[in-house]
Amino acid sequence: MSLKSAPKTAAPERSFIHRLDPRVKLVIALAFTFLVFLVDSLPVAAAQAFFFAGLARASKTPLREIYPSRRLLIPAIALTVVMQALFRRAPNETILFAPLIPAWAPLLGGAGAITLEGVVFGLVISCRILALSAIMPLLALTTEARQLAFAVTKLGAGYKAAHVITATLNLAGSFKGELAQIIDARRLSGAKPRGFFARLAGYRAIALPLALKAMRRSVQVALVMDARAFGSRKKRTWLIEARMTGADAAAFAAAAFYAAAILLANNFKILLGA
Question: From start to end of the chain, where are the E strands?
Fold first, then answer.
């Protein structure tokens, strides 16, 4: 009787974004983050949001990992649009609906209006939220923590700052798994609150064990750092060696072209007026 070897598990497929130099990815991510705040045109802001979603698709990373809190993101975006539509004021504004409060109401009768400028600006902010929610997760999911720390130090920051960044990323991933374990344990014990307020009260039972786990993990990390004499030397050596390649230069060129195109499109009306 012959024994068959177990089938090998296929390694996760890596995209060209995974293979880029971590320093290149970090610089481009920071530049794109700054660029998001410069854009105030709705079509350009929407194009940016779709562009970063396309990058996530190109990196072969599922959107559910890029937007893990999408159930909370949609109400936050809707609230942002409503608040801007109600309270943002601009010269020569276009009123879409007024008044919100009937004229016969006491004190505040006839007050409130929804403006076109407020709706547009709320949509711009929503596109910024979607874009920013994709940039940093995309960087973290396509770059190992030690590579990200290497990139931070090579760009001039101290390795202590790099450790803070990488430790935060590692702890966030571990807390996600521990949170899932706590929720599964509550479900197995029969805890199934119904209704919004019941679920809200049930979060207290989740927050306490998660806080205890966080404190224990922080103590463990502190002990490990002390045992390895972390911070005793001003400089440290790296096992990682990174060299710029043609793909990295092409990525820089593509990012520069994209930034120039976005800025020109955003200031198109100003350029025509000039």
Answer: 95-97, 114-115
Distance CA 111, CA 100 (A): 6
In this structure, is the dihedral angle defined by the CA atoms of residues 166, 170, 173 and 179, taken in order, positive or negative?
negative
**CA distances in angstroms from 126 to 14, 56, 123, listed in the order given:** 30, 18, 5
Q: For residues 33 and 136, what is the distance between their CA atoms, to the nearest angstrom?
A: 9
* pLDDT for residue 4: 42
110: DSSP letter: T
Contacts of 85 (CB under 8 A, 6+ apart): 114, 115, 118, 119, 122
171-224 pLDDT tens trace: 666 666 777 777 777 777 776 666 666 666 667 777 777 777 777 877 887 787
Biggest CA-to-CA distance, the chain: 91
Single out the residue of 28, 20, 23 nearest to residue 151, CA to CA. 23
